[in-house]
TrEMBL record:
Lineage of source species: Eukaryota, Fungi, Dikarya, Ascomycota, Pezizomycotina
Residues annotated as domain AB hydrolase-1: 290-401
Gene3D superfamilies cross-referenced by the UniProt entry: alpha/beta hydrolase (3.40.50.1820)
Origin: domain of life: Eukaryota
The protein's name: AB hydrolase-1 domain-containing protein
InterPro entries to which the protein is assigned, alphabetical: AB_hydrolase_1, AB_hydrolase_fold
């Protein structure tokens, strides 16, 4: 069986290549594309030299089995480079290394670096030692024996030591010499160069190994500066690109980036069951900026928030903004009913893929409001506060029957042969909107088009998240502060009464209920200024 190992790449950009172009390409295209192959790559880490030597940059990918790097799944990534990648990589001196894992030792407190937050991981040190074997028949065995029986144990006594791994040149690289590689992970604060470290380098056994069996060909030291996942998120580098040359669209059109006029990333996350969820990331490009996320209602897209997001970006420029299409908007990988647990897990998957450990605020409406409360109940440690709008904490049999009737309309054919979801769109918007909103033709058409373009099967199974749920008992134990918001005309005022009835049951002290005038079921769409007034003190 093929061993696990590592793909390691050193890079030295040419002086004429702008740093922002190099990093934006790597962080938003090159790296995430590989991390979308979890069967091959378990992580992707970028390091910058701290020893003053070149190459300056190193990227390290742990590989589940080295034979995967010979499969078409991987080789086509390099064969089908985007024009931008080809243009950028042509300005970088690149050396690739393929290594088979031989031995490993780690601290009892060690956590894989990709499991750390960005703040925790940034600055961790990687020492890379290259050993060139001498022409002795048992040279490799003797070097490995010394590492396993003495050197790794002595290194583990160095303050700040986290992990040591021993690799050798992979069997994938035939015809060349075999090298031994030691990779040693240390905390930001460590004892490199101290007494314990010096002792590990001065034993009689080490002297014998370096005299007879191997030369230390190179020793490099790097600091981690970026860990990426399968979802591009680097607004910072994107924001530094000239607007005229910043736009990029992937070959599958599922990822686009631009800094014209402001940095925006549109891409997707794939869930464990194969659902592709589009998302948009924008706002403050600082990688440490607090994040506000939005959950849209059933039958709408992430664009239902467009008008309100423009207000938010102007009023609260300190935030990064994340939107995504809720499960049910698009085709689904398997025809199974959706639950509130499933849609809250979807959000957690998105945050994990973007390496966002905690949201500042989560805002949701309708099914997105129910999702928001469920998420706050299920993942309280990842959320500071939430705003749940125009929703109920429990379903009812009457509501379930109504959804079944709406499915029948969506799946029917109209007299002109067009899908019945067009009819459902008109009915839905009229039911949702306040009478004043129905006078705004542009807004009505905007929302009707969103509903009419929903995937029909996605709707059929997505709406079942609202069929059978009850959070009344759970919400009493909610640990996350929340604000409830409702349009004054939602359900002709019935939902105002319903939300007034359960607002006191949230957590220890209940929640305030803000009522948006001249709005129905989607107040942030119908009266975005009124919605801002309702939430501005909470955000």
């Amino acid at each position: 069986m093929s061993p696990p190992g590592m793909l390691c790449v050193t890079m030295q950009p040419k002086p004429e290549l702008p740093a922002a172009q190099f990093h934006e390409w790597y962080n938003n295209e090159h790296g995430p594309t590989r991390l979308r192959l979890p069967q091959i790559f378990t992580n992707g880490l970028r390091y910058r030299a701290n020893d003053g030597k070149e190459p300056t940059y190193l990227a390290a990918y742990d590989v589940t089995a080295m034979s995967h790097l010979e499969t078409e799944t991987y080789t086509t990534l390099r064969a089908n480079r985007s024009p931008r990648e080809a243009e950028t990589i042509g300005q970088v001196q690149v050396t690739r290394y393929f290594w088979d894992l031989v031995a490993a030792k780690q601290s009892p407190l060690f956590l894989p670096i990709e499991k750390l937050t960005n703040d925790e991981a940034e600055g961790t040190v990687l020492v890379v030692v290259q050993l060139e074997l001498k022409e002795e028949a048992d040279a490799e065995a003797e070097v490995v024996k010394w590492y396993k029986e003495e050197h790794l144990d002595m290194l583990s006594k160095v303050p700040g030591w986290l992990r040591s791994r021993l690799f050798k040149t992979s069997s994938l690289e035939t015809g060349g010499p075999t090298y031994i590689w030691g990779l040693h992970d240390y905390a930001k604060e460590n004892g490199l160069g101290g007494e314990e470290h010096k002792a590990s380098m001065a034993t009689p056994w080490r002297v014998r190994v370096t005299d007879k069996y191997a030369n230390i060909k190179d020793r490099r030291s790097f600091s981690l500066f970026y860990a990426f996942g399968p979802a591009p998120r680097d607004l910072s580098s994107l924001s530094q690109l000239p607007a005229a040359t910043s736009s990029f669209k992937a070959a599958d059109a599922k990822t686009t980036t631009t800094n014209d006029p402001k940095p925006v990333i549109d891409s997707y996350v794939t869930t464990a069951d194969g659902l592709s969820i589009p998302y948009r990331l924008e706002g403050n490009p600082d990688p440490k900026a607090p994040v506000i996320a939005f959950c849209n209602s059933l039958l709408t897209s992430l664009h239902m928030w467009d008008k309100f997001v423009e207000i938010l970006k102007a009023k609260r420029p300190q935030y990064q903004i994340l939107r995504y299409d809720t499960r049910g908007r698009h085709a689904i990988p398997s025809p199974v009913p959706v639950t509130l647990d499933a849609v809250s897990d979807d959000l957690k998957s998105i945050l994990d893929a973007l390496r966002i450990p905690k949201l500042d605020t989560l805002i949701g409406v309708s099914m997105g409001g129910a999702t928001t409360l469920k998420y706050a109940l299920k993942y309280p440690e990842t959320l500071s506060k939430f705003i749940a709008c125009d929703f109920n904490v429990a379903s009812s049999p009457a509501n379930t029957n109504a959804w079944k009737e709406r499915i029948a309309v969506a799946e029917s054919k109209l007299e002109d042969g067009s899908p019945g979801i067009k009819k459902l769109a008109g009915q839905t918007v009229e039911r949702w909107f306040h009478p004043d909103s129905m006078k705004k033709d542009e807004v009505v058409q905007w929302m009707t088009t969103q509903v009419a373009t929903n995937d029909i099967e996605g709707f059929r199974y997505g709406c079942q998240a609202l069929w059978d749920y009850d959070m009344k008992a759970e919400m009493k134990n909610c640990q996350v502060p929340g604000l409830f918001v409702v349009g004054e005309g939602d359900g002709k005022g019935a939902l105002v009464k319903a939300m007034e009835g359960f607002k006191a049951n949230l957590g220890q002290s209940g929640a305030e209920l803000a009522i948006v005038p001249a709005a129905g079921h989607l107040p942030m769409c119908e009266n975005p200024d009124g919605f801002w007034t309702a939430v501005e003190k909470f955000i």
